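Tutorial handout. Part one gives the primary structure; part two gives the three-dimensional structure as tokens.
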Amino acid sequence: MKKKPIKKLTKKEIEKLEKVLKLFEEETRRETGVRRLSGGFASVNMSDFHNETIDIEVNWGCKSDCTDNVHTEQWTLDRKELSSKKTIQEIVDCIDSQKGE
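Part two.
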């Protein structure tokens, strides 16, 4: 059986996804506590996309001359959420962790 080709992200999806990733990054900084640390950081990026989902990679931790503590997590967002009428915050709340898989 032949696989369906993956649909490219539309301009609207990309614009909304950028806002979602930015807010998710801000929330990650706050929830992990790294925003209070010198050298604390969080970065959130799309790692891949499919017809149904968008894969998100989250890196957070603390880097300095004596500490190098980095955590990497995989998350997934249902692509349909980007075309919904939900707010950016509501879409961020729909991102699912892939821990334990």
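Part three, for discussion. Strands lie at 40-49, 53-63, 68-78, 96-97. The chain has one domain: 11-97.
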